[in-house]
Design brief:
83 residues, mainly alpha, 0% strand
């Protein structure tokens, strides 16, 4: 499922600090849900800006990440780290 895919990408980001896998996962889920243009409409973010944000060089603000996740039907959550 998309939520497991995004969680795995987030876990990888938390382990290595590299954003590429997480941004690629967000882009892939956006593409599967109708594309960047549709996500831009849902989030009220500029389409060109979204392409840049989700590129390998992207570095979205936390507020932008929240908007993207919300637009994709997800939300940020905090849970205890595994022991």
């Amino acid at each position: 499922s998309a939520s497991l895919y995004l969680q795995e990408a987030l876990d990888e980001y938390q382990e290595d600090g590299h954003t590429e896998a997480l941004l690629l996962a967000l882009k892939n889920v956006a593409d599967a849900q109708g594309g960047i243009a549709r996500l831009a409409k849902k989030t009220h973010l500029n389409r060109e800006s979204l392409y840049k944000t989700l590129s390998s060089k992207g570095n979205p603000k936390l507020s932008t990440l929240g908007l993207l996740l919300n637009g994709l039907g997800f939300h940020l959550a905090i849970e205890p780290a595994a022991a």
